[in-house]
């Protein structure tokens, strides 16, 4: 299947999930909304669980792409601003995207698909699904993924000690996740991050 058609199916599944619980989403309706046959949908994803895993994987990738954009902004300096932007992106996308919120917190409501974090046995994997059927990140994995990407993006020259930088990056991520679970007050996540992170990260 061409990538555009696969993306159309994932978009259709996402829109269907916004309107009704995943248990009520029908493969035939997803296929019709994407303008393809139900058999084409099954050929691409193998099963409804395969579709769910691919959808969750896409939303995870979209979140991490946003992290990369936030870390790339603001020029080579201003590390604290770039970590603040990353924390703000995390809170914003988790507020607007129920799948990302569930992935980051580990709290899957009954409305959502909850594909297992472990990999699907290779014998059951449709070729196009191999990546989607790999292990999905847990909340702990997301913390490590974002922390490590932040360290790589911010570890310029001059740079603070890498251990201290990694600690600051993880702190920013965990502050953001706490704000996902319990929304902050008037200052928002930005004020929390800027207040807590070391001043040397501002350079």
Summarize the structure.
By secondary structure, the chain is mostly helical. It contains nine helices and no strands.
Biggest sheet descriptor? none
Helix amount? 55-70%
Instruction: State the separation between the terminal residues, measured CA to CA.
Output: 48 Å
DSSP E strands, number:
0
| Shape label | elongated
Structural class: mainly alpha
Radius of gyration: 19 Å
Strand content: under 5%
- Unreliably modeled segments: none
pLDDT averaged residue by residue: 86
Our count of domains comes out at: 2
Order of helices and strands: HHHHHHHHH
Number of helices: 9
Account of the protein in words:
By secondary structure, this protein is mainly alpha-helical. The protein folds into 2 domains: 1-45, Orthogonal Bundle (Arc Repressor Mutant, subunit A); 54-202. 64% of the residues lie in helices and 0% in strands. The protein has 9 helices and no strands. Helix 4 runs parallel beside helix 7 (139-154), helix 5 runs antiparallel to helix 9 and helix 7 (139-154) packs across helix 8 (162-181). The longest helix is centred in the N-terminal third of the chain and has 25 residues, at 48-72. It is elongated, with a radius of gyration of 19 Å. The model has no long low-confidence stretch (mean pLDDT 86).
């Amino acid at each position: 299947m061409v990538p555009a058609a696969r993306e159309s199916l994932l978009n259709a599944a996402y829109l269907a999930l916004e309107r009704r619980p995943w248990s009520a989403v029908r493969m035939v309706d997803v296929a019709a909304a994407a303008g393809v046959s139900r058999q084409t949908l099954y050929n691409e994803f193998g099963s409804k669980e395969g579709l769910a895993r691919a959808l969750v994987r896409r939303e995870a990738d979209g979140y991490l792409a946003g992290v990369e954009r936030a870390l790339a902004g603001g020029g080579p300096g201003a590390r604290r601003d770039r970590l603040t932007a990353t924390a703000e992106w995390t809170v914003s996308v988790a507020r607007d995207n129920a799948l990302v919120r569930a992935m980051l917190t580990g709290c899957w409501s009954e409305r959502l698909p909850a594909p297992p974090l472990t990999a699907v046995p290779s014998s059951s994997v449709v070729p196009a699904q191999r990546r989607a059927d790999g292990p999905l990140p847990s909340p702990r994995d997301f913390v490590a993924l974002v922390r490590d990407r932040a360290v790589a993006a911010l570890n310029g020259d001059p740079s603070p000690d890498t251990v201290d930088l990694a600690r600051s990056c993880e702190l920013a991520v965990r502050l953001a996740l706490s704000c996902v679970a319990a929304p902050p007050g008037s200052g928002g996540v930005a004020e929390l991050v800027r207040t807590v992170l070391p001043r040397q990260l501002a350079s």
